[in-house]
Amino acid sequence: MKIPEHNSPLKRIVLILLFGVAIGIADSSDAIAQTGKIAGKVTDAATGESIPGVNIVIERTTQGASTDADGRFVIIGVRPGTYTILVSFIGYARQRVTEVRVNLDLTTTMDFELTEEIIQGEEVIVVAKAVRVRKDVTSSDVRVDAETIARLPVTDLAQVLEIQAGVTVRNGIHIRGGRSSEVVYLIDGVPATDSFDGSTTVRLETAGVQELQVISGTYNAEFGNAMSGVINIVTKEGRSDRWGASAKLWTGGYMVGGSGGEDYLLGTNVAEFEEAGIQYRDVDAYSYLDHGVTDYQNVQGTVEGPLWGDRLTIFALGRYFANDGWLYGADIFNIDGSAGDSTLVPMNTYERLTWQGNIRFRASNKIILNLTGQGSNEESRPYSLFRRWSPDGRTNDFSDGLNLKLKMTHLISNTTFYTLNVATVAPKNSSRLYSSVSDGRYNDFDIAPPDTVEFTEGEFIDVLTGFGRYARGGTNLGRFKRKTRSYLVQGDLSSQVSRSHLLKTGFQFKVDNLELEQFNLIPGLDENGTQFDPFVPDIPIESSSAFVSFDNFNPITLSAYMQDKMEFENFIVNAGIRFDYFDARAQTPSDPSDPNIYNPQKKTNRYIDLNGDGVITSDEEIPENELTMEDREAYWWTSTTAKSQVSPRLGVAYPISEEGVIHFSFGIFFQIPTNNLLSQNFGFKLPTNPGSFGPFGNPDLDAQRTNMYEMRPTARRRPYRPRPDQIEAFEV
After folding, report:
1. With contact defined as beta carbons under 8 Å apart, do 230 and 167 qualify?
2. What is the CATH number of domain 141-235?
3. Does the chain have fewer CB atoms within 10 Å around its N or its C terminus?
4. Entry pTM
5. What digits encode the pLDDT tens for the residues 569-610?
6. First vs last Cα of the chain: how many Å apart?
7. How far does Cα 571 stand from its chain's mean position?
8. Distances (CA, A) of 54 to 70, 83, 121
9. Does residue 261 have a pLDDT over 60?
């Protein structure tokens, strides 16, 4: 695969289209994906008649509405959370309703009955009842708010996800049995999925989550690039009325124990254990491991509050977590093959630092700016059974993530608003033992370990040999680094155009930039072509299949959607349509049967066909007639083709009672291949020797497509109450 220049006519067309869409949306209004709606009616408690002109205000916000001629009101664009609503009208007692819960994409219905004011300044306080069954949900989803998360006995967000129906957390997050790469992750309405492999770009902490939504079935047109589910997260904002802070500090150890095996683990009394049939894998390292209270440690803190009244607020979170793990090895051998000090060494250590921030600035009652960021830095040393006796030769894994976003929300009215987002997502992964390629500690004892090892006081012992034995020194020679940076522009609009219709529309444009380098160090050669002794590390040549590298790989994606949420007395409909476009902007071999431009197999790709008959004869197979790399470049590659799809979505919810609803949904879904599938074993450097190689990535892969249907009843479970005759029978 080759990366082409990016000055194609398609780029100009896409940019013009993007500019036009952005102008169209900016002239109108925003994103409903991270907000909910409050709607209802106000009537006179005595007569039941509608009251027009009543003021409804959401306290501690600038949002509110007035009732129309029929006494109805609508407030859209409300962030998920718990609110207090104040209802007031001249001549009537003010009514304050607390504990009003607003959820993502859902309508919270609040009907008020006002009584005439008997005492001036009279106020009625009401606690809102919890909604038993959401009647406007047209797909299978679960919402978990901050209060619920705080009550759960969990320390990580993955544990919250794991207890949801249909979600499995094992080597990634899987929804309804799908691949982990088939899930899309959204943070505050903006994708936070790593374009390389479909994983999350950063780790979020439970203390920073306002609401978590898991959609495990079909989903509306506003969501895309997912096949099995959507994980939608709204992060916290700082309070505007007071300062607050929290802190957590805890530590702990592993309650493990055992007996025997210490001598065998340390390489003594081997014959005795072998006669007893005890294998290496049966040795209990914990039999002589001291119990401690610092095997894992956690420090976490949050702070929030107003920096400038209700105009400027801040929320900040930080967490440090370290875990030595529960798998240990013994330092029997140093990496150079010499005797170690026989101490126990933790072999699956993990360390993480995460942070999260949100600065909110209210420029006016209508315009709000949010600067948000999330970051994580992880370091670990993965367990290796092979290195149980020489743990210092293991590799180090590093994983860093950074999300930054600037969001503008414009509340045009209580029924119309829009948002514009500019964001960058930058995950980075690497793996290596030492930072420098030329570090003198690298060696290849894995290939040729010593037969004997000198222990203390000059005593030599024979080292066990044979299949399945542990390494007696040596270093991991693998090196890997990969960086993705995505730049994204997103706009969304929501408008309650009538009592029954909530229209939504939006677009998203994203450019990815990927870099990757992967290889194993090889023995270096001197000027005579002889391997250095002792071992000196070197990097494989670029044309070798052992060296994989690319940069400036820049796929683009563009999507747009339109959706109408229709709420009628007896049913709710979500109808929408979505457009997705993807272009890898790369090149593939013109002849897939001979893909390696560095070492072609066909003679016609190695020598110039002088007579043009398509056959290379022996007189043409001469060094002077060989094709150069530049010659092959002229015809070797062909450009990838763009992929697109129009996807209709439909969801219907039909309430059958106060506590039951049936919903049906259908959709066509489209997912762009992850970039690791497009770029795996970059360069198509197929070796000439016999064997099985690959797989090799294909940047011209078609996108995944699927049709999904769902029909499901939802009802509140009633507690079991025995009938009177059953109670009497029990008493008898």
Report:
1. no
2. 2.170.130.10
3. C
4. 0.81
5. 888 899 999 999 999 999 899 998 888 898 898 899 999 988
6. 82
7. 34
8. 11, 19, 16
9. no
